[in-house]
Amino acid sequence: MTQALVWFRQDLRIKDNPALANANQIGNVLPVYIFDDTVPEEGSMGGASRWFLHHALESLNKALDNKLLIFKGDPKEIIPSLCKSAQCQHVFWNRMYEPWAISRDSIIKTTLKSMDINATSSNGSLLWEPMSVLKKDGTPYKVYTPFYKNGCLKQAPPRYPVNTHHTKFAESSVEFPDLARLTISDLQLLPKIKWDEKFYEMWDVSENGAQDKLAHFITSSIDNYDEQRNIPSVEGTSLLSPYLHFGLISPNQTWYAVVDAFEGIDSAKERKGVGVYLSELGWREFSYYLLFHFNHIQRENFNSKFNIFPWKNDTQSKQDLTAWQTGNTGIPIVDAGMRELYKTGYMHNRVRMIVGSFLVKNLLIDWRRGERWFWDCLVDADTASNAAGWQWVAGSGADAAPFFRIFNPILQGEKFDKQGEYVKTYCPELSNLPNKYIHKPWDAPPIILAEAGITLGEDYPHPIADLSATRKRALDAYSSIKKAV
């Protein structure tokens, strides 16, 4: 039978995999993963993502009866070489939307066409293709609500998850004389120092693990998602973001698991928590939409006025950045979030907004410095969502929060972590403080601090920023660019 090469990328699953389903209709499948070491710096995976990828590949390889072929190098050279050695006349993959990936894949398609090899790409990552959602005048949306309600929901529904039948593999005896076949371990994705111990407690990196998280979320949390998603101490979110990024589950599987559980889209949207969760899947779509239509957003301000924003880049700001990265700012909710990030590879979404606002607005540090730190530390680091999220917080993005909306981390902590449970989990040195002072230990009387066993500056740092003064400084900085052309 004709052999069909399936190039796995950010779709590391068997179920609802359009590329694999299409290949199964052709003949025997040659499943391939290539660790592309030619990607530009902004796309090169951070440490936490590499950890997740290692275990995702192990899960996929097991599901493929250990038939996954692993290579490292330039796919523009490896894919044609594989086709030649294995006599493949068909190559299938699911699309990626990063600018460098689009360019790379276009070159590969052209090369394969010149070799009389069919190259077919499919949508395995998004509910709606970004090129198909446009305003009536043919231009892309820049605001989320009309994008989602008018551009997406008024289109045909997302495709239903496809069945992936039993795969017949190509002969394992195929040799690749010009290529070095590797093992997953050869990719050296795992960290050399053991900072990832907590990762194993939090993440079952497998296709079944993704399905289990989704099922648990639907039965236990989704009805209260609109309220509980903001409370970092409770399990109120789906925790599916890394699985969606690496494709251990598709957004289509997620969308229809929710919709079918509540007997259709109209019924689902009537339940507030469910409707809000579906709209959050829409936000993920919007991030990819912006990346596709405005592919500079990862490194450049969407709003060009911010090109002259007076970011701080002196010695003090570098020290502040280090304090922020290590969770030693002296602001408890910020420190808890940054420590959660380092220990688990994840940070609660409400807290992401709080720590982002503190960095960009209270410390006046360029949002790109935060984006890079998140990129290295998050298991769900995603070009589209990471860039769009940081520009939203900074006020420089499409449909962003206005710059003058500055989160007060004390008030945010008191509102969403009333008993201080989240802070106490990641800042245990503050555990004996009364709830009244858990989000502002500097206000606690000396006797209260002594009873809690805390000496500020020794057991826990003094705040690195005066929240009121730095808020005014941020607003003054914003005023200096408001009239810029």
Automatic annotation (TrEMBL):
Its EC number is 4.1.99.3. GO terms for molecular function: deoxyribodipyrimidine photo-lyase activity. Residues 2-127 form the Photolyase/cryptochrome alpha/beta domain. It is an enzyme of class 4 (lyase). It holds the Pfam family FAD_binding_7. The keyword Transferase does not apply. InterPro entries: Crypto/Photolyase_FAD-like_sf, Crypto/Photolyase_N_sf, Cryptochr/Photolyase_FAD-bd, Cryptochrome/DNA_photolyase_1, DNA_photolyase_1_CS_C, DNA_photolyase_N, Rossmann-like_a/b/a_fold. Coiled coil: none annotated. Keywords: Chromophore, FAD, Flavoprotein, Lyase. Its cofactor is FAD; (6R)-5,10-methylene-5,6,7,8-tetrahydrofolate. Belongs to the DNA photolyase class-1 family. This is Deoxyribodipyrimidine photo-lyase. The lineage of its organism: Bacteria, Pseudomonadati, Pseudomonadota, Gammaproteobacteria, Alteromonadales.
